[in-house]
Amino acid sequence: MIRFLDAASELVAKVLAFLSGLFLVAMMLLACANMVMRAGFGMPVQGTFELMGFLGAVVAAFSLGFAQRRKAHIAVGILLARFPSWFRRLADTATNALSCGFFLLAGIETWKWAQFLVQTNEVSETLQIVYHPFVFASSVGCIALAFVLAVDALKILTAEKAA
To answer: Given pLDDT bands bounded at 50, 70 and 90, which one contains residue 65?
Structure first.
């Protein structure tokens, strides 16, 4: 079961990281187009600042799970290195479980906010586009990270005592 969950969390992280990369390329193209239009024609692309904010939120949210899978986040282990392995495992499990709870709650609340935006037909200030899809996407990124953290906690709990 752990192997299945581990493979599933890897797949989710990779798919979202791929989509994050696509959105990042879109941000780069938008920034370049804005600079060319501003410098060459004196007319910047309307709503660039707004779109960069929306896309940036999705890029950040979609890359969280992949970064966790690769242990690319900052971790402070100087203090824990002095403790026995059973205590380090317990601390790692507790940290992953608490982080999982936090990001699950953040994802759920963000999802509720996106639903509220759908109900109120909220649109962006400059471009007048609905932006709830970006909020839903950010929620998915938080929930995906919570899943990856839960799997990490389970892997630590079920690992052999050699760690």
So the answer is: very high
Handedness of CA 117, 119, 123, 128 (dihedral sign): positive
Calpha distance 49→66 (Å, rounded): 26
Instruction: State the pTM of this model.
Output: 0.91
What does the block give as tokens for 132? 């709830």
Look at residues 21, 14, 57, 12 and name the one whose alpha carbon lies nearest to residue 147.
Answer: 12
- Return the axis-axis angle of helices 132-158 and 48-69, rounded to nearest 10°: 10
Using CA atoms of 24, 17, 125, 130 in order, give the dihedral in degrees to the nearest 10: 130
If we measure between CA atoms, which residue out of 107, 96, 37 comes closest to residue 68?
96
Alpha-helical runs (H) found in 42-160: 48-69, 85-120, 132-158
Angle formed at CA 87 by CA 81 and CA 93, multiple of 5 degrees: 100
**Contact (CB, 8 A) for 45 and 33:** yes
